[in-house]
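Q: I'm teaching a short session on how sequence maps to structure, and I want students to see two examples side by side rather than one. Could you give me a first protein with its sequence written out and its structure tokens following it? Keep the formatting plain so it prints cleanly on a handout.
A: Of course. Example one:
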Amino acid sequence: MSGVRRVAVDGVARFPGLPTGELQARAVGQLVRLLRECSLAAPRSPSALAVAFAGPVGHTGTVVDAPTIWGPRRPELPLSQVLSCEFGVPALVPNDVTAAGWRYAAP
């Protein structure tokens, strides 16, 4: 695994009081910008993306809840689908704890 990067999110902690939809749009927009930066800096175009998410994520890459980003019990966000459509490649979106397990348990 390479290119691991941790970034503070444009979420509820930075923008308290914003509606959920706007917080989700800000977080996705920030993520897309960061992924584009990484993609431009890479020696070749990515064939897939992987983004660890802080919160419960379903097996399809749908963010089920994101209390630290846009507050508790808000509408689900199909983040894997959004990123796949945006970049035209498969996108894997695991929970951050799951991703950490993959990263540090790997030989």
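Q: Perfect. Now a second example for contrast.
A: Example two:
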Amino acid sequence: MQDSERVQKAIREYKLRRLISLGFFVAFLVAVGTLRFGVDGTFAAVLSMASLALTVVVGMRLWQ
């Protein structure tokens, strides 16, 4: 039995929301970890945003 297009879209949106939540968690951990080592706050923010983007992009590629 095939899922309807609407169900497939809902599943994709659910996966994306879960990945974004995971990405924010990873970004938080990266920011806290870099700040604990005395790194500049701007560098910590850049690293955390990069980890957020990478988590979502890689997660969408792997979670198909």
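Q: What should students look for in example two?
A: Point them to this: DSSP finds two helices and no strands in the chain. Also worth mentioning: The chain has a mean pLDDT of 87.
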